[in-house]
């Protein structure tokens, strides 16, 4: 009787281990029906200094439900704009660039912990002084695949298989 219970318990453990990947996949699609409004601030500089030539507008998030916050930066100065840079935040982790044309940069905030963004409009200055890379548009919108769920399921399945093998092994007494 103990052997039957042990085999049944091992089978239940194996089923639980294999269901780990489906549970984590389902959890990725869970959403909250409750929406909260968070306080968000932005700033724009020109060549690293405050200027009246740079303006920003925080767009209402209900207009584009893909992002929590959408910010439009505009440069209107006389010097030709070379590129935009976002200091202190990482593209693809904290924000994505929606568009970058006609002296206007539009970014979407994808990190819920970010509540401030500053864009710097870099105009025709000595290129030897700048060390940053110009912002480019990333259209992939895909998160990196780590394989953690699959690894956990594999370890669980291996442990359950060992348990079944140990229980089903005949005792040589």
Features:
alpha+beta, four-stranded antiparallel sheet, rod-shaped
Structure, described:
The protein has 173 residues and is an alpha+beta fold. It has helices at 2-18, 20-27, 148-168; strands at residues 41-46, 49-50, 54-59, 69-75, 81-85, 95-101, 104-109, 116-123. The mean pLDDT is 75. The two termini are 18 Å apart. Helix content is 27%, strand content 27%. It has a four-stranded mixed sheet, with no helix packed on it. The protein has a four-stranded antiparallel sheet with strand order 3-4-7-6, with no helix packed on it. The chain contains three helices and eight strands, in the order ααββββββββα.
Helical content band: 25-40%
Order of strands across the biggest sheet?
2-1-8-5
Class by SSE composition: alpha+beta
Helix count equals 3
In terms of DSSP E residues, the strand content is 25-35%
Rg, Cα atoms, Å: 27 Å
Query: Mean of the pLDDT scores?
Result: 75
Backbone shape: rod-shaped
Order of helices and strands: HHEEEEEEEEH
Largest sheet: 4 strands, mixed
Model regions low in confidence, pLDDT < 50 over at least 5 residues? none
By DSSP, the count of extended strands is: 8
Distance between the ends? 18 Å
